[in-house]
Amino acid sequence: MVKTEENGDAAGGNLEPEQYRKMFIGGLTSSTTDETLKEFYSKWGTLVDCVVMRDPATKRSRGFGFVSFSKQSEVDAAMANRPHIIDGKTVDPKRAVPREQSQRSEANISSKRLYVSGVREEHTEDMFKEHFGKYGNILKCEIIADKNTGKPRGFAFITFDDYDAVDKCVLIKSHMINNYRCDVKKALSKEEMAKVQQQERERMDRGARSRGPPMGRGGGGWGPGGDRGGYGGQPWGAGPGGPGGYGAGGGGQWGPSGGGYGGGYGGGYGGAPGGGRGWGGEGSGGWGGPPSQGGWGAPSGGAGAGWGQGGGQGGWGTGGQGAAQSWGGSGGQSGGGGWGGRGY
C-alpha cells in the first residue's frame, strides 16, 4: 500500500469526502504493484492512497485495487482520459461505490441511463438538462407523462454518452431541482434486472458454503486490516463473487456474470474462494460487506426486486408489485417485469 503524508489532512477534514475522490481499478495483471498503480495515476493528481488488493495468505494480487486522490477534480481528469493501459493491459476504472450503495445488486452494472424519481408538474425537461448537464453530455431527457392527462407520472430518464456521468450522479442520491428533491438511480432494462436478480439468488445460495470466519471486525476507516476496519466484510477475491460486476464468473470472463466490487468489493477478480479472509472482516467501517456499526451503512428494506425494493412509485423491477409493467403499459397487463413501477 502506498500512502502519502496528506492522509493527515484527510483526518483533519481538509479533504473532500473520500467517496468522491476514490476509484476502483479492475482487471489488473498479476504483476501490477502499488508503485505501478501510483506511477500511472499520479499523472492526474496527488494520490492520498493507492493499493493493489492481495490475498492475505498468499499475497497474490486479486486483480483489482483502489486509488484515492486529493480532489474530486483529479478523479474527473483520470476518468476523462480513458482508456487506461497498465502493464500492457487495458484496465477497468470506475468511481468507487460506498458500502451503502454497493449493497444494491445493480450498483455494479454500468449504465448510461439515469432514472430520476420525485418529478413534479413544476419540473421541465430543460431544468433537468441544466442540472444534470454538469455531470456529463446528455443525449436525451424524458419526463414520462400520463397518456390521458399529460401530467408527469413522477419519474424521468436522462441518457448520457458515458456511464461515468451516471456514476457521478448516483454518488449523490438526492438532487434539488427547482426546490424539490429528486432521487436518482441507474436505469436498467428488464433483461439487466433479471440478470442481477439471478446473480443475487446465486450469491445467496453460495454464501453459506463459501463464507468463513472473518479476520477481525473493522472499526471504520479505509485501511485493510483487522482492528481498524478496512474495505469491508466479504472475502476479497472470492471466486464465485457477489452480484454483477467484475468477477471471473461463468467461463472466466470479466463481466456481470459473477464477482463484483459492490457488496464486498472485488469478489472475483482473479482469485480462488477467499474462505473468509476478508479485509476488516464483517466490520463496521469501510466499503462493502455486511452492515454493522458505522461505515457506509446498508440500505433499508430487503433485497426486493427492482428500484424501490419491489415496486414502489416509479420503481423498476422484475418482481414484486412493480414488476408486471412495461414501457407505455397502463396497468399490469404485461407479464414478468419490464420498465416502470407500480401502476404504470
Automatic annotation (TrEMBL):
Q: Does the keyword RNA-binding apply?
A: yes
Which InterPro entries does this one have?
Nucleotide-bd_a/b_plait_sf, RBD_domain_sf, RRM_dom
Q: Where is the RRM domain?
A: 21-104, 112-189
A Gene Ontology molecular-function term? mRNA 3'-UTR binding
Against Gene3D superfamilies, the record matches this protein to: 3.30.70.330
Stored CDD domains: RRM1_hnRNPA_like
Q: Where is this region: Disordered?
A: 198-250, 276-344
Compositional bias per record (Basic and acidic residues), positions renumbered to this chain: 198-208
Task: State the GO CC annotations.
Answer: catalytic step 2 spliceosome; chromosomal region
The organism sits in which domain of life?
A: Eukaryota
GO process annotations (BP): mRNA splicing, via spliceosome
Q: Which UniProt keywords apply?
A: Repeat, RNA-binding
What SMART domains does the record tag this protein with? RRM
Enumerate composition-biased segments (Gly residues).
215-250
Q: Name one Pfam family in it.
A: RRM_1
Cited PROSITE patterns:
RRM (PS50102)
Q: What is this protein called?
A: RRM domain-containing protein
Q: Which organism is it from?
A: Onchocerca volvulus
Q: What is the lineage of its organism?
A: Eukaryota, Metazoa, Ecdysozoa, Nematoda, Chromadorea
